[in-house]
Design brief:
heterodimer, A: 353 residues, mainly alpha, two-stranded antiparallel sheet, 70% helix, 3% strand, B: alpha/beta, Rossmann fold, 4 domains, 6-stranded mixed β-sheet, 17 helices, 22 strands
């Protein structure tokens, strides 16, 4: 190839074609960000109340839910898996928290109440454990991720219903006499004028970005998703990597369940139904390939924003809920369609050698 | 343009003998020109050899001839008439078909369905399995393959899968058959059979375009030679005017000496690696390795010659910890080892370069840098990777191995085969191994990259690295190894110094039942 050179020789000047190519590639890369900007512009021009502080705060809370799920499950998808149990885990963790706060743990007939922070930790741990089970099913028992997590989806939802026999746990505010107040803060507190869930989203997204792009674990995740056999022959502990991705995903889902329970001050066993689909949609909108190995945390975050802005904006425009679903579906298909175009574009570039 | 030699002597080929011709074919991609006005001629009933280094534009040209791609400008002339191939179906309607280097077998379908995939024989919309089976069997029979057409294609060995692809073109009676590196996955015995088939196809009036990196087989087989370099024809001529130097000179644009051998290694003391009656079975209990005992010392290059299915890959995988042994033992530095995982072997300083880089080594979407550093990325930071340390080390290694890349941040899939192989090699070297295992180190690699890889390996050995490699290329064994071991059906059948490794001794030991002197 004429443009190939040794890495030691000085770089050749960029040619016009190369410059055009890199611009096009950059635009394609930032397409979800562009889409987001267009959506925001569109909605703010259509309704004057869209860009108000009050609305943005509500919007951010909604986005935080989707974003936390999407960021967590990005690891699973990057490693070539899929986690359908997210919504159930969110529901289950809320119910566990509700049970611990309202009914309490029963030893020898008498209920014991745990402080709110311990309740939160235990519920999060349950999410992690479900993720671990998913990982074990996928690695140790070679059950395809789709099936394994479909199974835990049902089991998780069933367990959430069993905890209370289908009832809602009302009033999670706790009781000063039981020393377990404070739980709703998780969903309702503000720090420096910004809702706590948004802080949590920002923090976890940052940590996830570090993990995915700066650590050996992140490299291993991409390697496992990109070519599992190669990863294995490189000495990467493929099973361990996969199990960890499911644990992260379960943990984030549990956190979402707790935030929602905190916001509502109630735990409902049906919480989180079809959340997994929202999360997967956000990840895919962000340019992550469902085959694994390609994508980024930042992309998933932007994808979650697109979904959140779209949903809230349409509500504000008074678009019916039914049409909202249709529009969401079309946007997802469009996004993946553009993704495929980009793939073909890149393939063209590669074939030119 | 470099000297273009017209055929002058011998049984001169006439213009009328040209069955397919490309005129001034140009293919442009954004930023590059892969083909710069190529006039390629395909002679009737001949084996038309097309040679060129990776990236010379061979594959692009062939894809255009087979209708998988369209030219930016220029035209195709078939039997004197201009034709346009909109897609591969159009090309096959005109009798042009291609057997791809990467087999496009549908593993979950029976052989007959594979042969008729895309143009099923059907009556009133219902596929007639019986007729397909009969015609498949017939086509396979012509190729000397007696496999049952009902067998799932994925269960066949690689060599037979390729025969299925060739059978596909036979069953549809194509006139022009493009074979893109057909022997890269075949054992010597299977190659021999393929060559016989090619002669048979010629007799039946098929014109063949043949692409390969193996010079000897090209010289044995070819009738008309065309060399492509950098998107242009760098030379063409009939067999009688062509020899090894002619090809290499035109391919590389310089004189490359591929012949050579590894300088004798000094005796560096004790064995680094020993295996004692190493035995490996498949899940089904079939014996893959049968009491293999070998030894290798630091600074030595041990070449294992074996055909496909001889157990060579399984042997290296077992040594690298990717497979567990069912019997016997592995001694490394005198210590008995039991590897549970690849990481265990790597820890001790054993690194493997797998045979099929695409399947077993590369992460196609990730950058060259990440691919090189993948196995030892923890070394650049336990918790956070230091990009600076990583880049410095990777760049240094890329320089040492002459990896030709514009930018190490580009995806590894953008590299040519030879450079991809060097990336895999670089990854193993980054582990700082004391024992390097290479499975077919130059499969699908062009001549000059091959020479560079040999050079690197010899240098590494002279610095005390112990190298064990497998190959099905006799030339490679003779040039690279100090000691040679022949593996056949999982057992060591012969072992000798490289000086004693004549073509016939290697070949007859490996193939066992093939009579001596069957080749020239």
């Amino acid at each position: 190839m004429n443009e190939v050179m040794s890495p030691l020789s000085p770089p050749s000047p960029l040619r016009a074609g190369a410059a055009w190519r890199s611009t096009a590639a950059l635009l394609l890369k930032l397409r979800s960000l562009l889409a987001l900007a267009i959506l925001v512009l569109f909605f703010s021009s259509m309704t004057s109340s869209f860009l108000t502080a009050n609305n943005l705060s509500i919007l951010a809370k909604h986005v935080a839910i989707t974003a936390l799920l999407a960021v967590g499950t990005s690891f699973v998808i990057l490693a070539g898996g899929i986690d359908l149990s997210l919504g159930s885990v969110a529901g289950l963790s809320g119910m566990i928290a509700g049970y611990l706060l309202v009914d309490g743990m029963r030893f020898a007939g008498a209920p014991h109440f745990l402080p709110a922070w311990l309740v939160i930790l235990l519920s999060l741990a349950c999410g992690g454990i479900v993720g671990w089970v998913n990982g074990i099913l996928v690695t140790r028992f070679s059950i395809p991720p789709f099936i394994a997590t479909l199974g835990t989806l049902y089991v998780g939802r069933g367990a959430a219903l069993l905890i209370s026999n289908g009832r809602t746990f009302p009033d999670l505010a706790g009781d000063a006499a039981r020393h377990n107040t404070g739980f709703p803060l998780l969903g309702q507190a503000y720090l420096a004028g910004i809702p706590l869930p948004v802080w949590l989203m920002a923090m976890l997204a940052f940590l996830a970005w570090l993990l995915a792009s700066k650590t050996p674990f992140g490299r291993h995740v991409y390697a496992v998703g990109g070519n599992e056999r190669a990863a294995l022959l490189c000495g990467i502990a493929v099973s361990r990597v996969k199990i960890w991705t499911y644990i992260i995903s379960g943990f984030c889902a549990a956190l979402v369940g707790l935030i929602i329970a905190g916001q509502l001050e109630a735990a409902h066993p049906a919480t989180g139904q079809s959340f997994e689909l929202n999360a997967i949609a956000a990840v895919v909108l962000g340019g992550t390939s469902l085959i694994g190995g390609r994508g980024s945390i930042g992309g998933s975050l932007v994808g979650a924003f697109v979904i959140g802005v779209l949903a809230d904006g349409l509500v504000m425009l008074g678009v019916s809920e039914f049409w909202q679903m249709v529009i969401k579906g079309v946007v997802i298909i469009l996004a993946v369609g553009i993704d495929q175009l980009q793939n073909r574009f890149q393939l063209r570039l590669q074939e030119s050698r | 343009m470099p000297s273009v030699e017209q055929p002058t002597t011998g049984t001169a080929l006439m213009r009328g003998d040209i069955v397919l011709e490309s005129r001034e074919i140009v293919r442009e991609y954004p930023g590059t020109r892969a083909l710069k006005g190529v006039n390629f001629r395909v002679y009737r009933n001949k084996v038309n050899v097309l040679i060129g280094e990776n990236g010379a534009g061979k594959s692009t040209l062939m894809r255009i001839l087979a209708g998988a791609e369209t030219a930016t400008s220029g035209e195709l002339i078939l039997e004197g008439k201009p034709v346009v191939f909109k897609d591969t179906r159009a090309a096959s309607r005109h009798g042009v078909a291609m057997v791809h280097q990467e087999l496009s077998i549908l593993p979950n379908l029976p052989i007959s369905d594979n042969i008729f995939a895309g143009c099923e024989l059907s009556r009133m919309g219902v596929v007639s399995d019986r007729e397909q089976a009969v015609r498949s069997k017939d086509a396979l029979h012509k190729l000397g393959c007696e496999a049952d057409p009902g067998v799932l294609a994925g269960t066949l060995p690689l060599g037979q899968q390729q025969l299925v692809e060739i059978a596909r073109s036979l069953a549809h009676s194509f006139r022009i058959l493009i074979l893109d590196e057909p022997t890269s996955a075949l054992s010597s015995a299977e190659c021999e059979r393929l060559f016989a088939i090619i002669h048979e196809l010629k007799r039946q009036g098929v014109s063949i375009i043949y692409i390969s990196h193996r010079l000897q087989e090209l010289l044995d087989l070819g009738d008309y030679f065309t060399v492509l370099r950098d998107g242009q024809i760098a030379g063409e001529g009939q067999r009688c005017n062509v020899d090894r130097e002619w090809i290499i000179d035109r391919m590389t644009g310089r004189s490359t000496q591929l012949d050579g051998s590894s300088p004798e290694a000094e005796d560096a003391g004790n064995d680094l690696l020993r295996t004692d009656a190493l035995t490996v079975k498949t899940f089904g209990g079939r014996l893959v390795l049968d009491h293999v005992s070998l030894s290798a010392r630091p600074g030595h290059i041990l070449g294992i010659y074996g055909l496909l299915g001889s157990g060579r890959t399984e042997l290296l995988e077992t040594l690298a910890g990717a497979r567990s042994a069912d019997g016997g033992e592995i001694l490394f530095r005198g210590q008995k080892c039991k590897f549970m995982r690849v990481a265990d072997a790597m820890q001790l300083g054993i690194a493997l370069v797998p045979e099929d880089r695409k399947r077993d080594a590369l992460i196609p979407d990730r950058s060259i840098r990440e691919n090189i550093s993948l196995a030892v990325v923890r070394r650049f930071g336990r918790y956070f990777i230091s990009r600076r340390k990583e880049s410095v080390r990777v760049q240094q290694l890329a320089g040492e191995l002459c990896i030709k890349a514009t930018d190490l941040e580009r995806p590894v899939s953008s590299l040519s085969g030879g450079n991809q192989q060097k990336v895999v090699l670089a990854r193993s070297l980054l582990c700082e191994p004391s024992l390097l295992l290479l499975d077919e180190p130059t499969r699908g690699v062009d001549v000059s990259a091959k020479a560079e890889i040999y050079q690197s390996l010899r240098l590494l050995a002279s610095r005390g690295l112990c190298i064990v490699f497998t190959s099905s290329e006799i030339e490679e064994i003779q040039q690279l190894a100090h000691r040679v071991m022949v593996l056949s059906r999982g057992a060591v059948v012969d072992s000798f110094h490289v000086n004693a490794a004549s073509d016939t001794r290697l070949f007859s030991a490996a193939s066992g039942m093939i009579p001596l002197g069957s080749e020239n």
